Each structure stands twice: as structure tokens, then as C-alpha cells.
Amino acid sequence: MTALRFDVVTLFPEFVKAVQNYGVIARAADQKLIELVTWNPRDYATDRHRTVDDRPYGGGPGMVMKVEPLRAAIQAARQADQPASVVYLTPEGGQLNNEIAASLAQRERIILLCGRYEGIDERLIELEVDEELSIGDYVVSGGELPAMVTIDAVARQLPGVLGHSESAVQDAFTGGVLDCPHYTRPEQIDGRSVPEVLLSGDHGAVAQWRRREALGRTWRKRPELIEQVKLSAEDQALLDSYKSEHG
């Protein structure tokens, strides 16, 4: 299996590389299921100060990332190995979800562009960016954290990355709903018990309970999600049962 390669254009390469040092992403990197390569625009700046930003036209606070060093870094990344589209991490992009992560996992290579300061010169976006992606309707200091979130979300979709083959299937948002509750030993904590069905050994009953809880929790905590899910007759019956019990 060919490793999924992430090329990240960033001013802070060591920060981004930390994503592959821990947990399942570290295991994925060790097993050559993913590869992470960084490209620093400062390496492509042509002045002695390695300048990558400048004051915005029209005035205003902050600095704007310049076209030339960013474009040179992106073009260098594009020329490496197989071609890839450039994904710019920005609040203006479509919001990352499980479906998009699964789609990105089908690719062989993804170039992630991380902005900083007040943003990137719009002409660079027009010239070099193929897609825009957001991790939510809020602002962080740069594109590095969104890039790391994207790498994690996409990588865990790959076969062999998670420790159990069913883990990705049972993740939250798989099938458009939240995950079910989980329990482990001991059976009692401060008078609160593990649901009896999970101790029954009846795998069919456990599966049905988990599906019912996943649907019910989604209806209770994220009702806008449940409205978008096409429920089977069985799912609707399970959800109706949950609603009846929990009001």
C-alpha cells in the first residue's frame, strides 16, 4: 500500500511535524502508512532577511504573507513526486467533517497551505490554491493547528492506522451521528453502574443498544445533525424508543 503523503507549506515546520510523534499518527508514520513533508516559505525568500510578509495595501494592522516565497514553496511541493492539489486552511473554506476526511484519505498526496499574520495575498490564493478547508467557525493564530487536525482526521481513515478494524466505523460522526457512550471497569463508580446490556454477552443486543444511544445522543445534543441523516425504519424505531424514555 502506498503511503498517503502530506506536504505542508508552513513557517513552523517543527510545530507541524509534532503531529507524527504521538498516538495513532506516530504509529501510522512508523508503519509507512503516511508520510509528512514540510516546506518553509522562508527557504524561498530572496532577500537576506528571508522576508515572507509585508504591510497591507490600504493600511490597517498586521502584516500580509507575500506571494513570491509562498508561491515558490508551493511550486516546489507540486513538483515533488506525484501531482497534488493545494488545500488552503482558512475559515472561509468548507468545514471539515468525517465525510470530507474519508474523501481526502482516498488521495495519494495532499498539499496543505498554512497562513499566518493577517492572511495571505489574495493573488496567491487565486493563482495556486485549488481547495479551501476550515476546521470551524473561529480563528486561530495560523494554519498549522488546522493542518494538524486535518492530518489526524484523514490519517485515521486509512486501513491499518487504528488499532482495531472497527474503531473508525464506530467513531463519532460516522454515518452522520455521534458516538455511543463507552464504559470500562469497574462496574460501579459512586453508585453509577454500567448498563446491564453491556454485561449481558448478547452481541446483538449490545449493537442495538449502541445504535439507539448514538441516535438518541445525536438527537439530544446535536439535533441539526439528526435532521440530515436518512434513517431506516429500524433506526427510526430506535430513536422513537429513546425519545419516549428520555422525553
TrEMBL record:
It is found in: Cytoplasm. The keyword Transferase applies. Coiled coil: none annotated. Its main location: cytoplasm. It catalyses: guanosine(37) in tRNA + S-adenosyl-L-methionine = N(1)-methylguanosine(37) in tRNA + S-adenosyl-L-homocysteine + H(+). InterPro entries: Alpha/beta_knot_MTases (IPR029028), tRNA_m1G_MeTrfase_C_sf (IPR023148), tRNA_m1G_MeTrfase_TrmD (IPR002649), tRNA_m1G_MTases_N (IPR029026), tRNA_MeTrfase_TRMD/TRM10 (IPR016009). It holds the Pfam family tRNA_m1G_MT. The keyword Methyltransferase applies. One of its GO terms (cellular component) is cytosol. Keywords: Cytoplasm, Methyltransferase, S-adenosyl-L-methionine, Transferase, tRNA processing. It comes from the Bacteria. Residues 4-228 form the tRNA methyltransferase TRMD/TRM10-type domain. One of its GO terms (molecular function) is tRNA (guanine(37)-N1)-methyltransferase activity. Specifically methylates guanosine-37 in various tRNAs. Homodimer. Belongs to the RNA methyltransferase TrmD family. This is tRNA (guanine-N(1)-)-methyltransferase. It comes from Spiribacter salilacus.
